[in-house]
Design brief:
Layout lengths: L12 H10 L3 E5 L3 H10 L3 E4 L3 H4 L11 H14 L4 E5 L9 H15 L3 E5 L5 H9 L4 E6 L5 H4 L9 H17 L3 E5 L3 H10 L4 E4 L7 E4 L1 H4 L17 H17 L11
Helix pairs in contact: 2-4, 4-5, 5-6
Bound molecules: 3-methyl-2-oxobutanoic acid (KIV).
3-methyl-2-oxobutanoic acid (KIV) binds next to loops.
Length: 272
């Protein structure tokens, strides 16, 4: 399969804006470790997101609340070490950007310095306006995350679609415009009606990246474990599986076990 990989130059936030302007869709996947990041970077992905979904996928926590700044720095550094072309964005975890601009800036500086990432992503809108402004003013590129915000699961009590009623849709539009005004370089829109995501994407000049937000956003993102079919339990409507790694890994593991039990591995050629 041919993909758009001939341009080996490092992807920048400016390039993402140009992609929006030219109508070229932005591809983004999550990764949390060196090997996976190396594979998807070489495959030509535009953006690698070190999402706080690592709390679920890497640590087995029930929500994203259990991951700390130190954990995210560990995953972020691993991905940055592997990535040559893609833009790397690392999530600011729960509680690190929450209404205390100086504290938020300290956390954002630690994230940038200790991971070497290109940018950070922050969940929230108007409520964290001053934090976002402080961070962007310090020269740190910020992608905002609006719509369904998994870090607020205990506030809403559900992962259901957001922005369905007029009041919530208007707040979402206002938050997007605010983030653009503050200088965010992009906005991730999670699980909102396709029509609303399209309207936002047409109204703002910075790129939008959607997950469960239809085809009208400027790019798409998926959690890699979901996209590659490693996680059998998670089957939301928006998910398309591009492989069945669960079956492939299960079969390969069973094959290996059988070989070991049958004294069929290693053979003479595999021994010193
Ligand atoms: O943490 C994450 O993986 C995310 C998803 C919405 C892509 O933010």
């Amino acid at each position: 399969m041919s993909v758009h990989t001939e341009n080996k130059k490092k992807v920048t936030t400016l390039q993402l804006k140009k992609m929006k302007q030219s109508g070229e869709k932005i591809s983004m996947l999550t990764a949390y470790d060196f090997t996976t990041a190396q594979i998807i970077d070489a495959a030509g992905i535009d953006v690698v997101l070190v999402g706080d979904s690592a709390s679920n996928t890497m640590m087995g926590n029930p929500t994203t609340l259990g991951i700390t700044l130190d954990h995210m720095i560990h995953y972020g550094r691993s991905v940055v070490n592997a990535t040559k072309r893609a833009l790397v964005i690392v999530d600011m975890p729960f509680g690190t950007v929450s209404g205390n601009p100086m504290k938020s800036l300290d956390a954002a500086i630690r994230m940038m310095q200790e991971t070497g990432a290109d940018a950070i992503k922050i969940e929230g809108g108007l409520e964290i306006k001053d934090d976002v402004k402080k961070i962007i003013d310090a020269g740190i590129p910020v992608m905002a995350h609006l719509g369904l915000m998994p870090q607020s699961i205990n506030k809403y009590g559900t992962y259901a679609i957001r922005g369905k009623d007029e009041v919530e849709a208007q707040k979402l539009m206002d938050d997007c415009l605010l983030m653009e005004e503050l200088g965010a370089f992009g906005i991730l829109l999670e699980k909102i009606p396709a029509k609303l995501a399209t309207a936002i994407s047409e109204k703002i000049t910075i790129p939008t990246i959607g997950i469960g937000a239809g085809s009208g956003t400027d790019g798409q993102v998926l959690v890699i474990q979901d996209a590659l079919g490693m996680n059998k339990e998670f089957s939301p409507k928006f998910l398309r599986r591009y492989a069945d790694l669960n079956a492939i890994m299960t079969e390969a593991t069973q094959h290996y076990i059988a070989d070991v039990k049958a004294k069929n591995f290693p053979n003479e050629n595999e021994s010193y």
